[in-house]
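Supplementary notes for students who missed Thursday's class. We covered one full example, reproduced here. Read the sequence, then the structure, then the short commentary at the end.
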Amino acid sequence: MKECKNCRALLPEEARFCPFCETELVEKQRLRPPRPRRRLLILSLLLALALLAAGGFGLWRQNARLQPQTGHKGASLMGTWLAATDFDGLTAAFSVLPDRDDLLRRTEEAGNTADYAQAEALLAAGDYDGAIAAFLALGDYGDSAQRAEEARKAADYARAEALAAEGDYVGAIRAFSDLGDYGDSAERAEQLQLERRIIQSRSSMAAGEAFIAALRADGTVAAVGFYFLDWEHLITSPDWTEVVDIAAGAHHLVGLLSDGSVVAAGENDAGQCQVSGWTDIAAVAAGASHTVGLRKDGSVLAVGLNDCGQCEVSDWTDIVAVAAGDAHTVGLRADGSVVAVGKNSDGQCNVSEWTNVEAIAAAGKHTVGLLTFGSLVSAGSNVYGECSFSSWTDITAIDTGPYHTIGLRKDGTVVATGSNYFAQCDVSSWTNIAAIAAGPCHSLGLRADGSLVVADWAYPVEILSPVQFRNIRLPEK
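Structure (token representation):
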């Protein structure tokens, strides 16, 4: 027995509290707060200890009743306290406490809930690998398996978007298609298909009435010739950078920048160079005195001379390629149909019945379409034989000047028809050609090694040999 230091009552040796004077016999120790995730486990252990203490106290009470009364004041107070205690109520309260198995179940449930919340937080933060691992670790808890699969799809979606941002359209389209009906994956795959076709319509070469230009692989532009037919307007290569597409009108040059903006130089008498406010453009084309821009969403805009309605393109949708003639504009839809506006004096806009078209070209007074099977269709003037190509086969690309048409075959050779007044059709000896372009007086060929060849009496190969016409950008695949 030991004596209370305050009221001097006799107490058991292991007593830590005096019930008579309500004095703590042992100085309390400051406890560290338990970790949040282990709090329930600690509470469970405390409840178990309480149950054991209650049982021990009951045995002590029963034993105390058998002991003789000593008449000590402390013992009397103890008896009074024991008599006032509602042990039946205390027993009933302890009886409703959960048993050991239930406590373990509740503790495990709390841990799973915390782990689930952590997995959701990882997913919200974009840590897809961490979220997948966390959900899988939860096993069959709730919808953890389903959420792991959704996290996996979210990771695949993010990777598909990264591929699209890098310009890997083939990889991005495949990745979105593999996601099936997850989110807007099907719509994104379709949108990227549209963008890819638009990008494939871009050109690295352009020819005006008295100049030619080429887009280098580093995004700069080389040009030679004259914007006008006099020596005072000699072209100097523009200081444009990050260019991804170029087009030429009769006396002006247009460049599309990688950020979707457009620049232009040369004659601007009809406002054909007023393109500084354009945004989100994916491809450009130029007629004699007007400029056309194709947006990523398939819509079209145009500026410049509009005397024949050649700039009335604002209602066009789902367009994947544009081309411009002297005074008409042509658009290729994703479904292979074709639309045209502008001057139709020679029937150059009679294209509404065309189907299965893969590419288009327009210049002067005629329009040409490349079909999926490698053959061609045409509308408009054929005065110079510019539409006399019924025997052509295996064509993969086309372009037109005002009075001639050229085609690139699968084997890298080139064919041409129409006026040859400037030797623009002298292309039969070309080989290993990757892309073509045509101007009013010349035909251009881009070899697979990035060098340029020209069919035109005014621009012999010698003047195209310097460094500025090397390393020309190859077409998009």
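Commentary. Residues 201 and 321 are 6 Å apart (CA to CA). The chain has two domains: 112-195, 201-469. If anything here is unclear, bring it to office hours.
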